[in-house]
Amino acid sequence: MSNNMQGILWALLATALFAITAAMAKVAAAHYHVLQILFFRQCFVLASALPILGHTFPQGFKTKHPLLHVFRLLGAFLALSSGIWAVALLPLTTATTLAFAQVFFVALLAAVFLEEKLTPARITGVLFGFLGVLVVMRPGMDGLSSVYTLVPVAGALGAAIAVICVRHLSQTETTATLLVYQAVFVGLLAGIPLFWLWKTPDLQGFFLLTGMAIIATLGQWVGVKALRLGEASVVGTVEYMKLIYAALLGFVIFAETPDTFTLLGAALIMFSALYMMRQEQRQKALLKPT
């Protein structure tokens, strides 16, 4: 089996794990605050990073760009907390669809802050992607179809800010440093307000929160393995399977049926992202020496 095929299989597993995490978060958010759910998750991410932390301390905390880390951590916190909040407020498929706005925010921010070229293919993809987002949100004379649709879009912007910062930081910082900073400081941002927001879970709630955190952490590690085995452009296309997983879980667990606008918007978003990937693959192939 080729490395790309192995990467695709691992990516399919990772997206399934993240979709299950989102469904569990939707159940948990009915009983616990978003920050308490995020805190549980970050505790397990930190536990998985402890071996790296032990080997790299104190060097793992040394950085040449502290301000970039601040923006990256704020973006990651906004993305993670909004992701949990979004599935609590919206149907699972709708929240998942709007979260893919991250792809287009990354393309725009990369052009501004990383001086990456905004090619005609990227411009076309961004325009179709935002059209898909607008179809799902359905703005009109009476406002949005739901003001809550702004929550996953805000999370997508936060995720894009984090991605842009990581792209810059990865040139000078180690993977261990990036992992340790997010595990520790996002956990602190979520944990400090819990002095006022904490709700002690019963046994069932504890298993729900713990299971969700374990599955999310496992999904992160499986996702990294997929990217190590397969090409990013190939593995990245599998990310859109999350929409199918979310639709199935939403229907089976929450009796949710995506409406026509959500399905049309999802199709436009998937088309635009796959179009950008395909055009960039062709561009790279043309630039390769023969």
Automatic annotation (TrEMBL):
<feature type="transmembrane region" description="Helical">
    <location>
        <begin position="121"/>
        <end position="141"/>
    </location>
</feature>
<feature type="transmembrane region" description="Helical">
    <location>
        <begin position="260"/>
        <end position="277"/>
    </location>
</feature>
<keyword id="KW-0812">Transmembrane</keyword>
<comment type="similarity">
    <text>Belongs to the drug/metabolite transporter (DMT) superfamily. 10 TMS drug/metabolite exporter (DME) (TC 2.A.7.3) family.</text>
</comment>
<dbReference type="InterPro" id="IPR000620">
    <property type="entry name" value="EamA_dom"/>
</dbReference>
<feature type="transmembrane region" description="Helical">
    <location>
        <begin position="70"/>
        <end position="90"/>
    </location>
</feature>
<feature type="transmembrane region" description="Helical">
    <location>
        <begin position="96"/>
        <end position="114"/>
    </location>
</feature>
<feature type="transmembrane region" description="Helical">
    <location>
        <begin position="147"/>
        <end position="166"/>
    </location>
</feature>
<feature type="domain" description="EamA">
    <location>
        <begin position="6"/>
        <end position="137"/>
    </location>
</feature>
<keyword id="KW-0732">Signal</keyword>
<keyword id="KW-1133">Transmembrane helix</keyword>
<feature type="signal peptide">
    <location>
        <begin position="1"/>
        <end position="25"/>
    </location>
</feature>
<protein>
    <submittedName>
        <fullName>Riboflavin transporter</fullName>
    </submittedName>
</protein>
<dbReference type="GO" id="GO:0016020">
    <property type="term" value="C:membrane"/>
</dbReference>
<keyword id="KW-0472">Membrane</keyword>
<dbReference type="InterPro" id="IPR037185">
    <property type="entry name" value="EmrE-like"/>
</dbReference>
<dbReference type="Pfam" id="PF00892">
    <property type="entry name" value="EamA"/>
</dbReference>
<feature type="transmembrane region" description="Helical">
    <location>
        <begin position="178"/>
        <end position="198"/>
    </location>
</feature>
<feature type="domain" description="EamA">
    <location>
        <begin position="153"/>
        <end position="276"/>
    </location>
</feature>
<feature type="transmembrane region" description="Helical">
    <location>
        <begin position="204"/>
        <end position="222"/>
    </location>
</feature>
